[in-house]
Amino acid sequence: MKDKPKISNAVIKRLPRYRRYLKELQRKGVDKISSNEFSALIGYTASQIRQDLNNFGGFGQQGYGYNVDALYNEISAILGLDREYKMVIIGAGNLGQALANHTYYYKTGFVVSAIFEVNPKLIGMSINDIKVMDYESIVEYVEDNAIDIGVICTTKESAQEVADKLCFAGIRGIWNFAPIDIEVPGHVALENMHLTDSLHSLAYHMNRMDDNSQDSVSKKK
Amino acid sequence: MKDKPKISNAVIKRLPRYRRYLKELQRKGVDKISSNEFSALIGYTASQIRQDLNNFGGFGQQGYGYNVDALYNEISAILGLDREYKMVIIGAGNLGQALANHTYYYKTGFVVSAIFEVNPKLIGMSINDIKVMDYESIVEYVEDNAIDIGVICTTKESAQEVADKLCFAGIRGIWNFAPIDIEVPGHVALENMHLTDSLHSLAYHMNRMDDNSQDSVSKKK
Fold first, then answer.
1. Sheet strands (E) in B59-202
2. Cβ contacts (< 8 Å) between A108 and chain B: which residues?
3. Which pLDDT tens digit goes with each residue over B30-56?
4. What is the ipTM of this complex?
5. Do B104 and A196 lie within an 8 Å CB cutoff?
6. Quick one: DSSP state of residue A43?
């Protein structure tokens, strides 16, 4: 465990959001911010913010607030965003192509090295200057190029097999967009993006809103 | 509040997942399942499952287990998936196009009626037989066609303005893919898909794994 603290998953989930808001503050030229000001901005309570950031030793100073640059850099380092990651995308369908074209990732250190496909019509194409390669060669490619992350954009039927292959090839993390829960060995990190789960949650909340249409509390997530 | 129970957000977040697994069981011809069997499958504890499903009056019978069809239909109804929703997508970039092409939604009752764009080169095109229309006409269109959900696939700079327009036009739910937190009135449901937040969580977990590489607990989310 070295000397890094054990941090709850709930806190980790909030860190990227803190980071986004800090980046916005940097852009606006803000140097420091109190937990109360930060609270008004981000929508968490000031005490939640203090508690969250205390997990990392606490960067705030009583009566001064948080140094925006220092906190941004510290959170970036905690998230591991102070280095570059090499990704491959598996599946050159609509979603795979959309992600390959999403230049935002490159700006933030996530570089797509290759896209893998089984469809012979797509193999050999380039998307956003990234080569679409034969899925057959994925294990060799991941090994030879020390790829960090596999992004699964296949059907749910293929997702587990793809994950198994990636893990066999020594991948360190899997970002799964297939609408199924996949299993990975304990040393591989897994993050699921279940789009339909999110859409179904939205449907639920829309129907609850109809039931409670007399309320008008501001909703912020 | 009518007579529907108040259910925590954490439970709601798990319902689409229960539903996915129940659908899988239906496909395999399974009629009933005990909470222990369900637990082995879905990865929540049996007591968690019983507690979650008790929120809805509990569909299980002691010594029998859950009726798969009944539970599936009940969860679908709770989520509001027993009806159809009309969606519009705003932004015909890569992500907007990927979502428009994602036929899975249609099968599950989410129908994309139109895509809205500001780029004159894209207006007039069709994507998956869905018309790309001028963003200028969005308020009229949403009003006239009783659109339920707006899917924001714009840049983060435009997202709030688009949300404001959708809310003005009477939208009931917003599915936001722009990498920014938007604000909506209390009667509008909001669900965010922050792709980069998820990727940053993945980076964090990958780095934690490196720290703990001696552990090998199975990880399942």
1. 66-67, 85-90, 110-117, 126-127, 130-134, 149-152, 173-176, 189-192
2. 196
3. 999 998 999 999 989 999 998 888 887
4. 0.81
5. yes
6. S
